[in-house]
Amino acid sequence: MHAQLDELLGARDKMEQLLRVIVGLASDLDLDATLHRIVTAAMELTGAGYGALGVLGPDGMLVSFLNSGMDSETVDRIGHLPVGKGVLGVLLDEPQPLRVDDLNAHAAAVGFPEHHPPMRAFLGVPITIRQNMFGSLYLTEPKSRATFTEADEAMVRALASAAAVAIDNAQMFDRARTTAKWMEASRAITTALLSDTDPVITPLRMIAERACELTNAEQAIVLVPSDADLAAEDVDTLVVSTAVGLLADEVVGRRVPVDGSTTGGVFRSGVPLITESFRHPIEAFTDVGQRPAIVMPLRAHQSVLGILAVARNNSQPPFDTSHLELMGDFADHAVVALRLSENREQARELSLVTDRERIAHDLHDHVIQRLFAAGMDLQGTIARSRSPEVTKRLNRTVDELQTTIEEIRSRIFALQSVGEEAGFRQSIQNAIAALTDDREVETTVRISGPLSAVSDELAEQATPVVIEAVSNALRHSGAQHLTIEIDVAEELIIDVTDDGCGIDDDDTRRSGLANMLRRAELVGGSCAFGPATGGGTHVHWVAPLDGY
Description:
Elements lengths: L1 H25 L4 H16 L1 E9 L5 E7 L3 H7 L7 H8 L4 E3 L21 E8 L2 E11 L7 H45 L8 H12 L4 E7 L11 E9 L2 H4 L3 E3 L4 H8 L3 E3 L17 E8 L2 E9 L9 H64 L3 H33 L3 H13 L5 E7 L7 H22 L3 E8 L2 E8 L12 H12 L3 E6 L5 E8 L4
Parallel strand pairs: 12-13
Antiparallel strand pairs: 1-2, 1-5, 3-4, 4-5, 6-7, 6-11, 7-8, 9-10, 10-11, 13-14, 14-16, 15-16
């Protein structure tokens, strides 16, 4: 009688304990904390010495294994996590409760890995959520007896049912929280791109950083067409323009063909994918072994601007369709923000171009005409002057007015060139044409070497040098022939030669020549001028390509 009473009281205590556990599970919405609490509760209800919860991936294989009862040193010595073989695999194939008195005697037993503690009694119960297998609870080695009982199995089955509801709630909360993070990232990128201040980092890097962070990835890269001017269907090579995370500096600049590559296939189709291996691996990104990755097109209307790819390490869980959907929405929002930012910048540039054109027209139609009229008046005064000293000073003033007119013309040209986004080659050719069109001088222009290697900063110094040298030759030398040679190799070399009257010591102090010397010093180069072979003047201006 007393034994039966003790058994009833013990059962009542277990039920009360189970109810407390169920209430506790319902109060926690953190998924990891919920999973650990389930394992701990199952061990307490059954008196198990060891407990674990195996979580299945989309492919039905174990992707996560939470254990309790083993110290961290033992876990480290065992090494890799279980993959679902042996008795554990029985629950994967047949999701039904399994109670075994001796693991070693079971037909599916495959033994334990080295350093694993000995185990005999086993109880496994599957956890099913919305008729889908989530994982299984595994318990071994009850402390107070040799085997698990039917009551233990019933208790753990009840716990598994409650755990399924708690896990489902935690997963929904986790998805909602994750969705909110992606939406916040989209909002932050939109705000940053459309703000009036210049972003500290480039838009593509901003997109890569947020994608890497929100997918818990090890690396993220953005690939763009190697030639931005080509239509999408004509692009044959993609290049990594931005990388964050592991080996970021080594990945930037890597090139991958569009045809035959995984990233190229997504670029062509515009369809994202989840993969663990890449055709045509990208060095320092996808050649480090198989690992979970998402390849996402950056779509704009009917075209693809580039590719956003993220990759985890092989010890992390694989990506699933929820990651693909969230990252797809994020990428679409980011591209819209990027396009809006580009459109706003183009509108701003158009406004600047309009202002430059207005200023250029005002300078040409009003300022130059007034200076020209003033020069004509002074020349009339020179004809009536009887003082050699006054005549000399008036001639000098007329020369200065002419110099000023030429400088204003060069500034007008510079304003128009900026509006047209002219390259260095075109800028030089336009400048020479503007200066020589109305002059009776035969002009030869020779340009050689990769002018694209000349930086914008160096071009800003070199273009005025050509203008100064040509203007000096036209104004002061009386030349019939003018040769301009520009060569790019290890350095930028500018040679301007005329067949005029040459240059004297006083001429070397002119402001135009002084400006050429000053510009050479600014870029770490040199400038020399003197008599040309056969008469005339030769200006030699040199600047290192990387000196500015």
